[in-house]
Amino acid sequence: MENEQIEAMSKLLKSMSHPIRLKILCLLQDKEMSVGDIREQVKTTNANVSQHLNILRSQGIIDYRKNANFIYNRIHDPRIIELMQKMQALFCPSVQ
User: Fold this and answer.
1) Is the pTM of this model over 0.85?
2) Total domains, the chain
């Protein structure tokens, strides 16, 4: 592996490593969700959810679309879905 690839992977994993961001990614695996729906699931403030979503967006992990007053988020990169599924299989076998 080249140093550039290792740096890119490290940056990506660092972006995902916060517990709230991991939970957001778990929620977004199967469907897109509004900020309010995500907030309800992770039990935190809109501001906190927005901050974490911005970090994930800045890395190209998630994308969003606007519909009227709502913003719907989804995982942009299919490799992230595959990575999340593998991590769940390794660390949460009862979820499978």
Assistant:
1) yes
2) 1
